[in-house]
């Protein structure tokens, strides 16, 4: 009997020991899986951060190059206008020169005809010699005057020709510069698309509701810190009519399709939009809704190239995801001033404008002001 009991105890201890060993092995295996998964997530986040930095640098460079390209195109248009004006002036001066040369030829023939008449013939024709002398002097004066005018016109034509050559040369240089800038912009655009594609692939790896929520919360936290810092540093200023008196009187900053309304649910998250997303073509001008001073103009995580305007009385307007920023911190803007161009900076897959209004740092519905 005792032997049976001891045997049962031994078997029970053996089973418990085996189960404990199995659980330990499972726990170790689970810990290894968690560690590996954590390492992969950290590495993926690191790649995401690296790509975001590359995308930031690419988008900032492309935005600056877009401004330079627009300047070059403007200068080229001025050169074309100048060339056209030079050609018109050249034609006018040539016509004037031909008229003066023709008049001079007629005067020379008339003087020659008068000079060939004999003194006796002139007397018989009852011509007064003094009068004839005055006529000769008059013709000589006109001839000298026309010769001076012809010389002046010829000199002007030479100057026009010289200016045209210089303008043509400058136009060629600007055309070459434009081609180089366009080529560089195409390279940057291609690189930007590649970065967006790679970033999109990484985002898919991390795309769960909680992860997306965490990212949105992080982006919002970054923006809230910026707003709080700006609010604390902004000196109170008044710009024309306060925004609280401009309800439904302001124009939208860009023409496009409203994609997400203020207060609507953000996809794959528990958050709601604190602004409005307006879908519009890339490169379309973005306009200031009211007068104010630029207090922020740089790339910000989640918002790309972001510009913020202080309108006084506690009001600020925000413009994000831009392709280029045309204003800098400290610039004074008026309603309708071009402040940026529509883009997809910040890693978005299509061009749009993030537009928001803040009152004392808190979001308000832009539709209350714009119509």
Structural summary, described in words:
- The chain is of the alpha+beta class.
- The protein folds into two domains: 52-204, Helix Hairpins (Orthogonal Bundle), CATH 1.10.287; 216-368, Glucose Permease (Domain IIA) (Distorted Sandwich), CATH 2.70.70.10.
- The chain has helices at residues 2-115, 119-124, 129-205, 209-233; strands spanning 257-260, 276-279, 285-287, 292-300, 304-312, 315-325, 332-333, 338-342, 352-359, 362-364.
- Strand 9 (352-359) and strand 10 (362-364) form a beta hairpin.
- Helix 1 packs antiparallel against helix 3 (129-205).
List the helices and strands and how they pair.
Layout: H1 2-115, H2 119-124, H3 129-205, H4 209-233, E1 257-260, E2 276-279, E3 285-287, E4 292-300, E5 304-312, E6 315-325, E7 332-333, E8 338-342, E9 352-359, E10 362-364
Antiparallel strand pairs: 1-2, 2-9, 3-8, 4-5, 4-7, 5-6, 6-8, 6-9, 9-10
Helix pairs in contact: 1-3
